[in-house]
Amino acid sequence: MGLKELLAEALPAGHDFDVLHLQSPATERPPLTEASGCSPTTIAAQHFFTLSNNSKVFYALQVVVYICIEGTSGDRMLFVSKADTNGYCDVRVDVRRATRALLQFLLSIDPSHYLQRVRRMRIDPAACKGLITPATNAVDALRILAQRYRTGNLDVRAAADRARYTSFPCPPQYTTRLALFTRAEPHYLFSESAQNPAKHVLPGDRLLRWWLASVDDLLVTLFDPATDAALLIPGEDSAVTAHYLRPVRFPRWRVGHVFGGSAEDPALTRIPRFPDDPKGRFLDDLAHEGRNPSLRAFWTELVARQEFRLGVVVGVVGAAGLYTGPCARPAPEDLLCPASPADYVHVKHYVTAEEYATAAGASEAHRNLVDCLLLRYGVAMPRVRGAHSTTPRPAPTQDATKRPAVNDLTARCVRKKPRC
Questions:
Q1: pLDDT bucket at 226, cuts 50 / 70 / 90
Q2: 235 in the Ramachandran plot: left (φ > 0), alpha (ψ -120 to 50) or beta?
Q3: Is residue 277 annotated as a catalytic residue, yes or no?
Q4: Which residue in 154, 277, 283, 299 has the fewest CB atoms around it within 10 Å?
Q5: Which GO terms describe its biological process (predicted)?
C-alpha cells in the first residue's frame, strides 16, 4: 500500500490534504556505537513529512532510518527524531492515526531501497584518477583538462559518480528496530508555534502514553509476536514505569531498554548515538572526557543532565524484532529525493526556518513548498483526499417499560425532632 492510500485511511473523510515526503540521499555514516570488534557498515537516510490543509502546513514528522550491515545479517533502525503540530488545521485530524500511517509506510520500504546508491563517507582515491578535486593542484588540473581536450572525453560525470557513490548488497536477514525519546516541548519543528492558543501541547506523561499507544499499534499489527519492546524512564522506579505499560496490547512490553548487554557492559558500545538526542549528547561528552561508564552508571548519570532535572516525564521507548508486514520499494510519486544533502536541507528549511506565531507562517511555508517543487523539480505537491470517517458512539438506550430508580438523596438524612 502506497503513501497516499495509507494516509487516506487516516485522514478525515471529505477533506483534501497536501503531502510532502522528502528523503535525503542515503549516506555512509560512522557506526552508531563504538564496537570493540569489527564495525558494521552503516547507511543513514532522513525522512521528512509535512501535511497541509487549506494551504497551511500544520504537521511535520522527521525520522532517520539506519541500515547496519555486518556479514550476512543486518539491522534496520528507525529513529523517530521529531514530530510537531502547530494548531493551524481547520479540520479535526487524528494526529496519532496519521503518525501511525507514516511510520507504517516507512516500515514497508524495502531496505534495499537505501543501498542502491549510497554516498561514500570518503571519496575513493582510486576512482579519482583523471578527476579534479579540491586536493588537485593547479598544474595537475591543467594537465587533466588538456588530456580531456585531446581525447575528447569532456563528460566525466560517470567517473565522478563512481568516485562519490557506491552500493551494498541487502542482507537476507535483518532485525527491525524502533527507537524514540519522548519529552514535552513547546515546539520541535514549528518555531514560535506555542504562541498559537489552538496548539495542543501534551504534558510529559500524556505524551509518553501517546507514543506508547502509537508504537503498540504497530507492534500488534506488523511485528512478530516474539518482538522485544521496552520502556525506560530514567530515574523512575520500575513500578511507576510499569504503570505506563498497563494499557498496551502487545504482550512482550517490559521495563528496560532494547540496546542489549548486561548492566555492567560499557555504555559507549551499547547505546547508539542518534542526532539531536539527549542520550547522544551525553555519549559525546563521555567520549570527549575519555570515560566509558557501565550501562547502569550511564542511566544513573543521565538523570543528572539538564534535560532530566526539570520535573518533566521523559521516556526511552524501543522495540526490536522481526517485521512481518508488506515490504517493497516506494513508488517514485511517494517521495522526493533531492540530489544532495544540501538540497534536502534547503527544501526542508522552507518549513523549519519559518515562524509560526500566527497562521501567516503556516501559509507562507506551504506557498514556498509549492513554488519550490514546481519551479525546481517540476512536480506538484501531492494531494490526498481523506477517507476515514468516525462513527459516533450511540447514546445509551433505556428500556421504556422499566421505570428508572429514583436516587433519594434524603434517605439517609437524620431529621431533627420537633420541639414540644
A1: very high
A2: left
A3: yes
A4: 154
A5: DNA damage response; regulation of DNA-templated transcription
Contacting residues for 201 by C-beta, under 8 A, at least 6 apart: 184, 186, 194
pLDDT band of residue 412 (cuts 50, 70, 90) is very low
Encode pLDDT of 269-292 as tens digits. 888 999 888 888 888 888 888 888
∠ CA 96-97-103 to the nearest 5 degrees? 90
Query: If we measure between CA atoms, which residue out of 257, 216, 217 comes closest to residue 10?
Result: 217
Neighbour-count burial for 231-259, b at 16+ CB within 10 Å, e otherwise: bbbbebeeeebeebbeebebebbebbbbb
CA quadruple 125, 128, 133, 134: dihedral, nearest 10? 10
CB atoms within 10 A of CB 55: 13
By DSSP bridging, strand 315-321 and strand 173-182 are antiparallel
Q: Which of 137-141, 182-186, 416-420 has the largest mean confidence? A: 182-186
Q: State how far the Cα of 136 lies from the Cα of 207, in Å rounded to an integer.
A: 53
pLDDT at 392: 53
